[in-house]
Amino acid sequence: MKRIVVWPPYIWLLVLFLLPFALVFKIALSDYAIAIPPYTPTFDIADPASWGATLRAFDFENFQWLLDDKLYYTAYMSSLRIAFISTVLALLIGYPMAYAMARAPQQWRGLLMMLVILPFWSSFLIRIYAWIGILSNEGFLNMVLGWVGIPPLSIMYTDTAVYIGIVYAYLPFMILPIFASLDRMDASLLEAAEDLGCTRMSAFWRITFRLSLPGILAGCFLVFIPVVGEYIVPDLLGGSNTLMIGKVLVEEFFNNRDWPVASAVAVVLLFILVIPIVLFQRAAERRQSASA
Amino acid sequence: MMTEDIFAPWADPSQTPLIRYANVTKKFGDFTAIDDVSLDIFPGEFFALLGPSGCGKTTLMRMLAGFETPTSGTISLGDQDMGTVPPNKRPVNMMFQSYALFPHLNVWDNIAFGLRRDGLPKDQVAARVEEMLRLVQLQKFAKRKPDAISGGQRQRVALARSLAKSPKVLLLDEPLGALDKKLRQETQFELVDIQEKTGTTFMIVTHDQEEAMTVSSRIAVMDEGVIKQIDTPSTLYEAPASRYVADFIGDVNLIPGDWRGDALHWAEGQAPLAVASDVAPGPAWLALRPEKIAIAKNKPQADNAVQGQVIDIAYLGNLSTYVVEIAGGQKVRAQATNARRLSRRDITWNDQVWLSWTATAGLVLTE
């Protein structure tokens, strides 16, 4: 009985993660070809005798290619930089919001939480398109600025627009875990800290902030990891010089039809993200065992 | 009874109080939590604020800690007005009802927290923490996190942490509320012990009258934002000033009647009840503790004897409480120790019995 309960997650992982990954990895080891599918070699299921030759045709040429062409390295680094800065911005904006929510009267908290989640009710794509309407040169923002006599800004198709879009889109992922950690904090801890000689400010840093660190950590990973691979926001709001690996990936797949290189890009991206994911897992486990 | 070496600074006019509440009122919006309270507490006292939940006792204590500000009136400590002093600058520490131990710090660091905020040198912090750990017998648990020790140990960490800074006054907010009964009783004596050892003035908030009686030198009984009576535990029990106090502290029978100066006329055709009291005549209640009433099958020789029928018996092991219905449907509880085996008890349900007590057993209350 116990075994049956344990199996579904593993089957889930196998079918929806490991199998697709194996397929992508296999393509990454193949060569570009003008064919359908656009790579070679392909396994001939009917002819097991040819499998050995097929296997020998695999190589790491595409990965070598990623190392040789500076474009990919620049794109990866640029993605990591944008993800890092966006995470910091989301934290700086999200923490005060989560703090205010946790400090709001009990009967308001549910509503405030609803408001944070509300944007998810409309499509991600539509919400990013809405930002085009706000940020473009003849957009809503410049219209309002014109009314108060400030010269128009050209934000659209710059990195600034990308940051605005990303922070906007991923802010709830920062707010919710921080709110959760602040919300379950016992208010008398702060009084105890003050009672023992802390000023309001030092009580905040030593107690509130310290105890919300797990929430901050969770929020940062929840923002950082998906933003590294983000494609829609830089594609719609970013300019031609906004380089992100998600964009490169799509270009390789659909514009160049170079599936093997695109697959190699995806595999490397996955390995880059495995590092923070493992770190996150470790931190979560430590927390678990610390509170057990 | 009172001799010179009994601790009773409140009875000595030459003593100056350590804590002084003067006409303190606290309002939360329209709700008056504390209504014009004046109260003096002396150095070395173990003072209890006792009352039902919502009576304002916690608010009264939190005002001394600095977490609430009085709407009017002043609170002074020593000769300093505490009016605008923030909580972190008051020589007062509090032990919280939830203990409020910092979950990310171990026992040692929790106790050291306040000392470090004072900027004490490392070796002094260490010496003081070790001393506190010894005081509450937790040396072995110094490196444990609060969630890795038992409730009773957490309670002791909270106590050690609040005592570490040697406050002039230690405030205890329902300190034993989360412990089970047996542990609570043990801890009560431990608290008294520690209070005597350190000589610190303790102020405790509790709703448990037994706890207040056990630990404190004086008790203030509170109700709806006012203090009903401040006295030693024995005076509160033996000479309550009102029916509220008599009923809140322990168990009491209240027999209403007409007080004529020497006896209480309580029911048509019944002999008036003789009480030794100098209360002025008028409508009044006779307050009578159950354990001061004797119960017998035959009419005894006594100042007061009333016949009734046993309608209920509560067997408590060492004691039995008999509920007896007397004239006019009045129910009176009488308590007797179970000196004989249960099987040999001669009084049972529906028996006609005699209740008797002396003229000095009861108290005439007009309030």
Tell me what you see in this structure.
The complex is a heterodimer of chains A (292) and B (367). By secondary structure, chain A is mainly α. Chain A has 2 domains: 59 residues, no CATH class; 195 residues, Orthogonal Bundle (MetI-like fold), CATH 1.10.3720.10. Helices cover 75% and strands 1% of the residues of chain A. Chain A is built from 14 helices and 2 strands; from the N terminus they run αββααααααααααααα. Chain A has a two-stranded antiparallel ribbon. In chain A, β1 and β2 form a beta hairpin. Chain B has 367 residues and is an alpha+beta fold. Chain B folds into 2 domains: 235 residues, 3-Layer(aba) Sandwich (Rossmann fold); 111 residues, OB fold (Dihydrolipoamide Acetyltransferase, E2P), CATH 2.40.50. In chain B, 23% of the residues lie in helices and 32% in strands. Chain B contains 8 helices and 20 strands. Chain B has a 6-stranded mixed sheet, sandwiched between helices. In chain B, α2 packs across α3 and α3 packs across α4. The two termini of chain B are 27 Å apart.
